[in-house]
Amino acid sequence: MTDDLPIRVVALYRFTPFEEVQAIRTALAQVCCVRGVKGTLLLAREGINGTVAGTPEAIEAVLAHIRALPGCADIAVKEAAAPAMPFHRMKVRVKREIVTMGRPDVDPLADAGHYVCPADWNALIDRPDTIVIDTRNDYEVAVGSFAGAIDPRTASFRDFPAWFAAHRETLLAGERPPRIAMFCTGGIRCEKATAFLKGEGLDEVYHLEGGILAYLEQVPPAESRWQGECFVFDERVTVTHDLSPGSHMLCRACRRPVGPVQQASALYEEGVSCPACHATRSEAQRRGYAERHRQTRLAEARGTVHVGATLPPREARDGDAPGGDG
């Protein structure tokens, strides 16, 4: 993390039982707003997940409040720094799940997989008998992944159980139960995915502790098995080793990452469309996006933030991984 940058960005999650979720939400939202902290925090009876940003002093105050919540005293956070605020507003939402798999029977607190620290991850995935699975969504995997990892090509984390059911026989075709290593952005999705596989009768299931973000922060580039960049759910869009900013921009129409090649396409117009969504948007929609982009630029020139327009919905923004990042 670059210490001389003014904004501190922290991603966190914790599976822990919360009883009075609405009361927790009210108090947490107040602390964040009073301190000028922005980002997204999701709360559910199963715990907390999110990413927030603010001054170092403001973030410390919010973290102190979170660590006072039940089961959160030793909650781990992943930190980065930014030259400017990467979020437009603060959202504290109550959800059914802090990461949406759609399987309320899956309980990571009861039976998740084995943690593997970033320093030991290479040795695990280098073994020829280890099956490595990327639990993230298709647009995230397209930006970067570990060499040799299986891409389930899921549009949403909700699709992971169905993908496993469809490929179960292939994955379990060997003479002995397979060794499976799974990973995601910040750890939360693969923690739930390993619990799901444990419930399916698999025991030798591992997941990367702290996720890709911890790996990119701790493992030297010369020793890295990571290829490409890592998508994150904020205005940084992607990060590389040492959590340095990546080369991707965010399409304001479909909320997907746009790499340098796509940015050079005739179908890419900043704030309006990208090659992935151009054909699915009408002229009226593109005119609306163009006006929103114009208003945003005018607000930036005035030193204010334009928050009047509603961004297109994406399941990942609300349940996949806003911050523990998945």
Automatic annotation (TrEMBL):
UniProt GO MF annotations: oxidoreductase activity, acting on paired donors, with incorporation or reduction of molecular oxygen; transferase activity
Any one Gene Ontology BP term: tRNA modification
Enzyme class: oxidoreductase
Domain Rhodanese: residue ranges: 126-224
SUPFAM superfamilies: Rhodanese/Cell cycle control phosphatase (SSF52821)
Enzyme Commission no: 1.14.-.-
Keywords carried by this UniProt record: Oxidoreductase, Transferase, tRNA processing
Region (Disordered): 305-326
Coiled coil: none
Catalyzed reactions per annotation: uridine(34) in tRNA + AH2 + O2 = 5-hydroxyuridine(34) in tRNA + A + H2O
Function in brief: Catalyzes oxygen-dependent 5-hydroxyuridine (ho5U) modification at position 34 in tRNAs.
Recorded family membership: Belongs to the TrhO family.
PANTHER family documented for this protein: RHODANESE-LIKE DOMAIN-CONTAINING PROTEIN 7-RELATED, THIOSULFATE SULFURTRANSFERASE/RHODANESE-LIKE DOMAIN-CONTAINING PROTEIN 2
This protein's name: tRNA uridine(34) hydroxylase
